[in-house]
Amino acid sequence: MKREISPPSKKMLILYRVAVVLLLALVLALAAGSIYGLFRSPDSEPLFRLGSEEARESALNRAAPNRTAPNTYPGAAGETTAVFSGLGTLRIPIAGQNSATMVLSISFPYPANDRPFTEELASRIVDFRSIATGYFASLPVEKLLSLNEDAAKAEILRQYNALLRLGRIETLYFGDLMIVE
Questions:
Q1: Are residues 94 and 174 located together in one domain of the fold?
Q2: Is the full-model pTM beyond 0.85?
Q3: For residues 15 and 18, what is the distance between their CA atoms, to the nearest angstrom?
Q4: What is the tally of structural domains in the chain?
Q5: Which residues are paired to 178 by β-bridges?
Q6: Are residues 88 and 52 in the same domain?
Q7: Which residues have a Cβ under 8 Å from the Cβ of 165 and sit 6 or more positions away?
Q8: Are the C-beta atoms of 111 and 79 separated by less than 8 Å?
Q9: Do residues 59 and 76 share a domain?
Q10: Potential cystine with 92: which of 77, 100, 102, 126 (Cβ 3.0-4.6 Å)?
Q11: CA nearest 146: which of 172, 101, 179?
Q12: Is it the case that residue 55 has pLDDT exceeding 50?
């Protein structure tokens, strides 16, 4: 049994060749850009910027109006220290009180130059929030009203440091510590 195959038309053949050439050009451009990116210095300036400087600043301010540089200050050995306040404001329902809520924000200093530790802190935000929420939610109302801040900080700090592998938190700061009915 013979089967006869008709050759593709000339237009289809030209279209196919153009598509293959465009695909190869795209692959070549991506490979060249990747190789250039591997050998380029990490602290070098961008090759080009789109839009005017004012337009970029305006877009950044619209996207994040409360955007500020991290709070940094020189440490004891000349290393820069930043303040981690990425946990935000915690609103913790008080056990036994239907309408009462504890409002708390936690922050702590960390070495800004230690990039792996900074990344670990950012990846643990959910864990940090659940530890603090669990600690305060488990306290009875009487203990919350006469809260020993130092003991609470020490226990939460112990639990935070038990999670961390790449560094340690030395001290915690409580802000906005209040009970709202």
A1: yes
A2: no
A3: 5
A4: 2
A5: 103
A6: no
A7: 120
A8: yes
A9: no
A10: 102
A11: 179
A12: yes
